[in-house]
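Retro notes (design track)

What went well: tokenization of the new backbones is finally stable.
What didn't: we kept losing track of which sequence belonged to which structure.
Fix going forward: every design gets posted as structure first, then sequence, in one message. First example under the new rule, 698 residues:
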């Protein structure tokens, strides 16, 4: 080999380090230990209403008390028989035979009775059973058995709706967050990594390591559930998988990019990896810390689904971090330079010089930083105005992308019985006051009927109420609120009350969690960057991205996609994810900018060099992260589609507009003031105050 080129470090052959082999062996042992627990995570996953409801709301108390009443939780269904133009005598006979078959085959809480509509075109039967209890598999089996019997006949439609059918249909969607979500995510990430690395082998390593991290996270999540009772739902486990592959691949891209740089300067892969981790390790640690801190703030939420997502998401991020800082480097070192074939970074070589997109962006940001900054701020502000066009709260029947049988039943009932509710409101009252409460409920102007139900040894009695208003209408909502105000010591629940509590609790959680996330992320950034101005700039940027992303949702959800409503939790969850994940890229950029400044570069030159060197990896990471969240837009629940859209659009805005243009422009415009009050904010003694060297953009 010829003489060494400038900037390279030659090392003797030495003894090959045993550390990579030790790390690999340790991971094998960890996976062997975790394996039995990872396989059990699906067994403790629950998607009942109580797993998503607000912890302190009336509807949650009602659901928990119903679990303890004789027979446990009731699975309530509504069978809807309908024929345009009016039901015939033969139709009624078919309906009666089917109901009789269902009654003989299942232990029901009572004998279903036909309730005809005024126009004679519809028959409604209420069917309920306590046999499934809280077992979701038994509930689904009961619903499917009823559907197998209740079949259309000779032009008469038969639909099975009610809370139990809705829960079963929603459960099928949540089940799809397991295998299909994982396979789709892996496929999307694999395609992007192949395009990014242009190597037949390299893409396999980060993808395989992310898969290992996902398996580890499943085992740890199960352990947390067993030790602390953390809730595990289809939503939280699905988001955990998304975060493992999205955030984990981001960390892998940064580490591999820095490792490739060092392989050109350092002869031994082990030494090159050690240098790379010293350079980018703090940024990876800080970025994962901000995501974890932001997600843990969800523990302050009162909504069960949001609070459960905090620990699950944190587990996913930390497992991804652990795998990418230990297993990934070990595998890369053991496989050596040949893994990068055909673009092998040879020792002593230099990367091919070419004018990059990010150098061009840096040129425009460096020439007119204030113009670029003002233009970007105006654009984000204009997009944020789209939030005024967001549809109203999402109704339960509108939450499915593809209309299932249970939603069709609710729509038929709403048309056939406009004069009364078709979904029960449940009142739980002390048994000693049950008669008084029943009389008060029946005397309420918004109530069509009320019947006394089960009583339990703990002193509670159930009252089933039918409102005059349609489910989730303004009239029914007013009835629920009035009952809660009038019935002192009683609790009002049921499906419509649950939706009302979800809306109110999400509004409360935003006021509590949002400030906590901002403070937690700001403190981490201050410690990392040793500055106050730079962290405030990054926080302001991600807030602007969040507003613009929601605004884009407002522009397309209703007019373009035809969505009937917006999930009440969209604002909070999108904020937590976009702030925590968006700051990631700011950390990558700012950390490199600080490195350049510490090495003596002028502020403007440091900002543009950081953009030039990290822009490519930030763009690649942003594309991968946006693509993983975009997978959610293919799921069957509208709240997941909306969340996936807002986060993926926000990540793209953050990657290609805010990080590249706005943060860089602000850094150039602020100069050393970016690092105030740290040492970097002060002029070096060897230079005249206010004097800067010319900026060269390569």
């Amino acid at each position: 080999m010829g003489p060494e080129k400038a900037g390279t470090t030659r090392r003797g052959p030495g003894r090959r380090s045993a550390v990579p082999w030790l790390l690999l062996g340790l991971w094998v042992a960890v996976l062997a230990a975790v394996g039995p627990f990872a396989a059990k995570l699906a067994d403790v996953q629950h998607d009942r209403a109580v797993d998503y409801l607000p912890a302190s709301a009336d509807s949650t108390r009602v659901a928990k008390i119903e679990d303890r009443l004789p027979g446990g939780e009731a699975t309530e269904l509504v069978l809807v028989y309908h024929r345009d133009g009016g039901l015939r005598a033969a139709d009624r006979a078919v309906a009666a035979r089917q109901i009789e078959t269902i009654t003989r085959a299942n232990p029901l809480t009572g004998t279903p009775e036909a309730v005809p509509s005024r126009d004679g075109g519809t028959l409604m039967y209420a069917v309920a059973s306590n046999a499934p209890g809280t077992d979701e598999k038994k509930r689904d089996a009961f619903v499917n058995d009823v559907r197998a019997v209740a079949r259309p006949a000779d032009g008469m439609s038969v639909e099975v709706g009610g809370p139990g059918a809705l829960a079963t249909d929603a459960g099928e969607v949540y089940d799809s967050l397991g295998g299909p979500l994982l396979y789709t995510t892996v496929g999307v990430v694999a395609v992007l990594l192949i395009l990014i690395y242009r190597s037949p082998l390299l893409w396999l390593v980060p993808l395989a390591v992310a898969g290992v991290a996902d398996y580890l996270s499943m085992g740890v999540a199960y352990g947390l559930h067993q030790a602390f009772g953390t809730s595990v739902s289809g939503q939280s486990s699905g988001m955990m998988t998304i975060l493992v592959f999205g955030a984990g691949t981001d960390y892998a891209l940064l580490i591999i990019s820095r490792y490739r740089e060092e392989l050109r300067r350092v002869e031994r892969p082990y030494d090159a990896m050690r240098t790379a981790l010293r350079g980018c390790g703090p940024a990876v640690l800080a970025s994962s810390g901000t995501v974890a801190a932001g997600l843990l703030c969800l523990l302050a939420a009162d909504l069960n689904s949001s609070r459960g997502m905090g620990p699950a998401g944190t587990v996913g991020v930390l497992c991804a971090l652990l795998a990418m800082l230990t297993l990934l480097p070990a595998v890369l070192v053991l496989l050596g330079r040949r893994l990068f074939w055909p673009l092998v970074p040879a020792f002593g070589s230099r990367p091919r010089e070419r004018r990059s997109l990010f150098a061009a962006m840096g040129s425009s940001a460096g020439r007119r930083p204030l113009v670029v900054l003002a233009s970007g701020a105006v654009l984000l502000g204009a997009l944020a105005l789209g939030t005024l066009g967001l549809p109203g709260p999402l109704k339960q029947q509108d939450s499915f992308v593809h209309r299932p049988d249970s939603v069709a039943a609710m729509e038929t009932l709403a048309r056939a019985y406009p004069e009364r509710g078709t979904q029960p409101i449940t009142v739980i009252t002390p048994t000693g006051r049950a008669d008084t409460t029943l009389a008060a409920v029946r005397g309420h102007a918004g109530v069509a009927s009320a019947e006394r139900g089960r009583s339990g040894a703990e002193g509670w009695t159930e009252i089933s109420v039918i409102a005059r208003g349609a489910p989730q209408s303004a009239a029914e909502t007013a009835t629920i609120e009035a009952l809660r105000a009038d019935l002192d010591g009683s609790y009002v629940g049921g499906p419509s009350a649950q939706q009302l509590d979800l809306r109110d609790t999400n509004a409360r959680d935003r006021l509590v969690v949002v400030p906590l996330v901002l403070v937690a992320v700001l403190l981490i950034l201050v410690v990392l960057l040793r500055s106050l101005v730079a962290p405030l700039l990054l926080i302001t940027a991600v807030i602007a991205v969040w507003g613009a992303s929601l605004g884009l949702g407002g522009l397309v959800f209703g007019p373009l996609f035809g969505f009937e409503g917006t999930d009440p939790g969209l604002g909070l969850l999108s904020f937590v994810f976009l702030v925590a994940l968006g700051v990631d890229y700011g950390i990558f950029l700012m950390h490199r900018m600080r490195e350049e400044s510490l090495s003596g570069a002028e502020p403007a030159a440091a900002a543009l060099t950081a953009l030039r060197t990290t822009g490519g990896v930030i763009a690649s990471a942003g594309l991968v992260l946006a693509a993983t969240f975009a997978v959610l837009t293919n799921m069957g629940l509208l709240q997941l589609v909306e969340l996936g859209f807002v986060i993926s659009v926000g990540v793209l805005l953050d990657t290609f507009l805010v990080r590249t243009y706005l943060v860089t422009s602000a850094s150039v415009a602020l100069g050393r003031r970016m690092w105030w009050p740290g040492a970097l904010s002060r002029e070096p003694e060897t230079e005249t105050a206010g004097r800067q060297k010319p900026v060269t953009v390569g």
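Added context from the reviewer: The longest strand covers residues 447-455.
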